Amino acid sequence: MNEISCPRCGGANPPNVPFCGNCGTPLSVQPPAYVPPPPPAGYYPAPVPGPRVIGNNTKWALGLGLAALFCCGPFTGVVGLFLAKKDMDEIAAGRAPQLDDGWAKGAFYLNIVGLVLFVLGICLFWGRLGLGRF
Amino acid sequence: MYNRTDKSVAVGLLVAACSVLAVALWLKPAACGYGTHTQLGLPPCYFLRLTNLPCPSCGLTTCFAFAVRLQFWNAFLANPFGLLAFFFTVSLIPSTIFLHWRRVSFRRIAESVHFTRAVYAGTTLYFISWISRLAIIHFANH
Fold first, then answer.
1. Shortest Cα distance from A61 to chain B (angstroms)?
2. Which residue of A has its CA nearest to B119?
3. Which end of chain A is more exposed for a tag (fewer CB within 10 A), N or C?
């Protein structure tokens, strides 16, 4: 325990006591300095000033979105959506303000377009086979 | 906190995994290694028709259809990544039951960095599997 000595009589006092127990002189008790809690493990580092960057998840989501557009449809599109949404949530929660929100949204919608085109392709195929009215 | 949404996610994953395996058992694996999904009324792969090369997903359904019949070598030949995806799907059944029993939220797992890294690794393997198949086709033709 850190005892506080009275500036007038020099008497020892327990911490967080407003007045000296010996002579009644007010003691200047300073509140403990605020220490911000450490960020939870796995979150992005603290914001840094400067231009915004494209998040890793967004980069992967862009690649997967392109793959969803050209060949793989849902196999990459769903994963791309998940990764882009993850970055969007981090930005929206203020945990990753250094990331560019525009790119994350772009990657998200790219994957949606990939999935929609996949469904549209199936619909057109069924229409051609006469399995449905599309 | 394990809520109704977490329970729905666990049940949804369990039903999805069981459905995928049931459909794979119902399908007859195509002998050529791809095209099994056309039995479900889905169109053939446009990438394959346009380029004459398999896309990264070509052979996945065939792979599952072989793997569910315990023909793992044929499944591997159809799509190496598909075999990994098959074991992941099978492992989802006890995993989701365990998560529900222990009341562990799947969303919490999905939010972790380790899960994201696993997604990166899976995606990388998916494309490595495709490149290796393209290389095999290239060397087989020359």
1. 10
2. A79
3. N
